[in-house]
Amino acid sequence: MDENLKDLLDDFSFEGGASSDALAELAELSLSNDYLSVFSELNGGEGFVGEVYLILWKAEELIPFNKEYEAEKYAPGIFLFGSNGGGEGFGFDTRSKPYKVVEIPFIGMDLQHATPVADNFTHLLERMRDSDGSLL
Prior knowledge:
By secondary structure, this protein is an alpha+beta fold. The protein is built from six helices and seven strands. The protein has one domain: SMI1/KNR4-like, CATH 3.40.1580.10. A seven-stranded antiparallel beta sheet has the order 1-2-3-4-5-6-7, with helices on both faces. The protein starts with a helix and ends in a 6-residue tail after the last helix.
């Protein structure tokens, strides 16, 4: 993980890096390198980035949580990776490359409510750092 990402996640509470099996499974999903690099050192976590609270799911939780939320059924093409802890999820829009980051409500999840909030994972963290508490 590069220094910029470390700085952006400075106030985060994390566990150690993800297992090699979990990393291999994530690599098959073609997620962005900046996002995947976090898991080499830090496996999920939560905390504030600027004024925005962020929960990043552990590598081992990503696929099960996407199934539990039925993301593919209600928002085809959105791969959830975390939340704001207040009813909104964050996910990658895998329908076009590069994957943009969207914010989407867990209740009433639907593609029409998937709001683009960042061009990539690093950009999401930068927007959070610079925001007044809202990304919309």
